[in-house]
Every structure is written in structure tokens, then in C-alpha cells.
Amino acid sequence: MGDTGTLKVTVLNGTDLVPKDLNGKADPYYKIGLVDDNNQYLVKPEKSKVLKNTLQPKWMHGAHSFRLPVAGASGIRIEVWDHDWITKDEFMGGGTVPLHDVEETARPTTRHLILEQRDGREGKDRVTGDLLLETHWMSEKFQKRLALRESDKAEKAEKLIKAVPKDTKLSIDKIKAAAEALIVSGHKGVISDRDQLRDVLEKLGVFNSVTALDALMWSDYESVFFPKEKADSAAVAEALRSYEVRDARSALFWEMLDLNRDGQIDFNELLLGLAMNTESSPQERAQFYFDQFDLNKDGELSSDEVFALQSTCMKALTGAIRVALFVNLRRRAETKLYMSEEELRKACDECASNIHKLGLAQRCTDYIFQTVDKDKNGVITKDEFLAFLMDKQAQDSLKSLIRTSLKELSEKNNKFMDEEFERAINRGTL
Can you say how many angstroms the Cα of residue 156 is from the centroid of all Cα atoms in its chain? Predict the structure, then answer.
């Protein structure tokens, strides 16, 4: 490991650890850090939380990051200890992963680490069990090569998606017809797990169509997009219907729409998210949105209905930005980075949280009524709403309002983030 880079180590769980307490259990925690050739820690090791009364601990701590090279470092040592609430903590076993044994890979690899006695304590330490680890080493040079390679493949995938025949692309009409059939069949309006989402997407015809999100999903489709040197648009359309790709697409829609992480997706939010990912015109999408949120079907939207519409739009906008960042940050060569899934998820969750705090739904609702409700009667007709959509100056002002609000977030990150905000704004605003 002569190159500069980052090694990440995750301790997933322990198995069959040695009992240390009178109840036949233990309260294990671990220490982890870089060591020299004599297994001596070079700096104070990091410590995990204590798990009570278990010999099969699952720490779920997340990855520990080590910037390399470090002078004198030859391995990563992990020691498991039993926390004693009264007396001295007891050693439960340890092991060292030599740095030269860790291969450079694009994704984390798992390995078992057999726990052993300490040097010089053979026959004195009582030790059993092992640890399951994930290790992930990438040098800066390797990260840059990955970013360049993935950027090239992303361009190919996007060109193939665009070349798919237009009649196979998802449309508003397809969504409306399928949604009406689902509602008639008694759909309750809440999707509670990914299997149910996959079934609903199947019934909505998503798996027989191509969506805008699919251009982002190139990494999951890579094996079917590029099984050979050349793939055509017909092969792409067929690949999108495969079982593996259906699962990948369902997972991405879940990631985009389950914004509050409560394990549920509102049916209307799903329809809106799908509509945002069609190739339909803004007018077609707007009419669809209006019909979905005109709850009493009187041909008018009250301020509450517009706020509900804007709230859902902002959720979808946030989800679209979140997914775009999650997928694109990894693949854009000019970012010169290749972030792990854990790092990407954390960055995207933070971004989504910050967008939510901006209160954009209420601000957009206020702007729409100020612009459209000329007679101040507190409602907007469909004609007024659609006319607002056709008013370029009004739309530019609305986008400017959102853009200004998001500007601070992008300044805290980078130019690329600003580009993704712009893409999402153009697709998702009303």
C-alpha cells in the first residue's frame, strides 16, 4: 500500500465469543486501529459501543476509515473486550489483518478474522470465536480510474436509453389508465414494503416502459447493457424487463420516494414521482397533477390542495435530487472521487434534510396564488393553472425562487450539485 488512499474496515458481527460473566454471556466491545510489526497500536484505537449479554454481537457501527500510508503501519488490529461494570475489562480475543493482504477493489469484500490470544499470553487468555469484517481499500489513483471508466459507461448507457423507441417510454396516459384500474380494485393508498412497490410498478406498466430514472441506473444494468462490446436499443428495452433489473428499478424508486424513512410510500406520491420521470410534456404532467389533487373534483384547487400538491412536488423534487446525487456523484469523472455507498447515503440524506427545512412548499404555494389568483377568491381553476404553466416569465420566477433557496446548499458542496439541482428543478417544478 505505497499509494495514498483510504482503507475502510467495518466489523459486522462476532460469532461464538467466549463467555465472561456468571450468566454465561458477556458485554463485548471492540478496539480497532493501525498497528506496527509487533502488534502495537500506533495511535489510540477507536472503540465500539458495548453490547450487553451476548456472545453473538452485531455492532452495526459503520466503517472505520484509515488514511494511508502511515509510517510504521503494517496491519489493522481488532481486539474484543468484555466490559465489566465493577472490575477491570477482560480480553476476549484479537486478530490482525496485514495491510498487504487487503486487495484494491471497487466494492467492499468480506473476510473472517479468527480471534486469537495475545502475544506472550498463550495458554492464559481464554479465547473462542471469530469476527466477520468488511474491508475496502482504494487508492486515489484507483478512484480516479474508476470515476473515468464509469463516466464513459454512463455516457454509453444514456445514449442507449435515449435510442429506445418512443412507444416503449413511460407516458402520462399509461400511468393514468393503470392508476384508475388500481384504485377501482381497492388500493388503499399506502405502499408498505418493496415487494408491494414492485407489484404496483408492475401493474402500472413501469417494467414494460423506459423512465428517465433508467438513464441514472447504468451501474445496476451494466452486465445486461454491456454483455458484449456493442448493445443496441432493443437489447436495452428487453433488459429493462428482466427480473434483476425490475428489482433494481423498484429499489431506486423506493430510495427516491421513501423520504422520511418510515417504510411507507403514499400512492399519490408514487404517481407524481412516476409522472416526473415520463417523457410527457410539462402541460400533460401539469394536467395530471391537477386532476390528482383536485380532491373534490370541482375543477378548482384551494390553497390547501395547492399546498398538498406542492408538498408532494417538493418531496419528489428532493427525491430526484437525492437519487441523482447518489448515482451521479460516483460516476462523474470531473468530481475526481469515488464515494462509498455509506458516504453517498449520508451526504444525500443530509441534503434531503436541508431541502425539507427550507419550507419550499409553502413559499411556492404563496407565489402561485399571488401570481394566479387575480380576483383573490382563494381558488385556482384548471384553466388558470394551465395558463400559469404556459407563462414562461411566471415559470422562470418560480424556478428562480427555488434556485435561490437551493443555492446555499450547492455552495456548501460543489458545482456538480448545482447542476443536479438545476436538472431536477426543470423536471419537477410546476
Answer: 23
CB atoms within 10 A of CB 167: 7
Contact 394, 287 (CB under 8 A): no
The number of helices, as runs of H, and strands, as runs of E, in the chain is 14, 12
Strands 75-82 and 90-98: antiparallel
- Return contacts of 291-297, CB within 8 angstroms, 24+ apart: 292/268, 293/268, 294/382
Residues 260-287 pLDDT 10s: 667 788 777 777 777 776 767 777 877 8
pTM for the full predicted model: 0.53
55-59, 192-196, 257-261: least confident range? 257-261
Cis ω before 69 (30° cut-off from 0): yes
392 CB contacts (<8 Å, ≥6 apart)?
A: none
Q: Is pLDDT above 70 for 399? A: yes
Residue with the bigger pLDDT between 266 and 415: it is: 266
Cα(240)–Cα(225) distance, integer angstroms: 9
Residues 417 and 138: their CA atoms lie apart, in Å, by 24
- What is the Cα–Cα distance from 254 to 55, expressed in whole angstroms? 35
Please give the pLDDT value at position 79. 97
Enclosing H/E stretch for 160: helix 140-163
Cell of 169: 417510454
Separation between Cα atoms, residue 259 and residue 343, nearest integer Å = 17
